[in-house]
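Hey L., structure's done. Input below.
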Amino acid sequence: MKKRILFVCIENANRSQMAEAFARLHGGDAVEACSAGSAPSGRINPRAVQFMAELGYDLASHASKSLETIEGDFDAVVTMGCGDRCPWVPARRREDWSLPDPKDLDDAGYRAVRDEISTRVQALLASL
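Output:
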């Protein structure tokens, strides 16, 4: 049975999108990953697209979407520091990853956040 994972941040433009991508990359067919935002920007940050392309992932195929479009229960819901700003979503497990929003970081800082998300997603998948 596939594990369902939801990644949430405010704009659903950077961190949660990269986390969704890494869950798909690292989890393969064993995972149903999605992401959403509490106040979605409606677009994916071009730098997120650029830095995921470095790893061979096309983030341009993703869409920034609202939590209101998300349905069902999840095995895990991971927020990216938005904490109480995110509405309740049913899940067996909840985590809050307090990661900096990379949108204003330099390239090295952006890549560091991207790589930290990859590491955390792998650990999450191994523990589900």
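The mean pLDDT is 92. Strands lie at 3-9, 31-37, 74-79, 91-96.

-- N.
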